[in-house]
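Residues determine shape. We examine one folded chain.
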Amino acid sequence: MITPNQFKRGAKIEIDGEPYGIVEYLHIKCGRGGATVRTKMKSLRTGAVIERTFKSDEKIKEPDFEDKEMQYLYNDGTVFFFMDTESYEQIEIPAEFVGDDSDFMPDNIMVNVQVFNGQPIGITLPNFVELEITYTEPGLKGDTVTGGNKPATVNTGGTVNVPLFINIGDVIKIDTREQTYMERVSSAK
């Protein structure tokens, strides 16, 4: 059991036997009375988005997931294919259940697939991935580490804001939970 005060983006909860993922949340403290948490949640089975407000001291059940470590193989635009590396069983997960995580998911990466009542309903990427920059505006001479930011596209198709000194061909570390730049791993020569 968790309370709404422990909500974060991507957290999973169960309401009326249905698993949901937290898309957005906002803590609201009223002058009188208790605090509330306004959420926007996405059904992990149907993809439907609902909004709901919880009291901050309410107890909410966490869904009983089975996590399986699987290897991402490829996608055809509408379905993503994963393989269990022990049994070599392949499963398909619709693109809407993978969501924005696909922007930072290179081929052959190991991910955790959540299974709820025998049905795969979502994935969790490793906390950090290293990806190569395929496009960004060139940095100018004199750009510093503490300068500004610019958008950059990585080899998986995702876009992340990076410091001005990052160039095409650089490999960067990305925090997949927040989808943000962490550091440059290696620079293009």
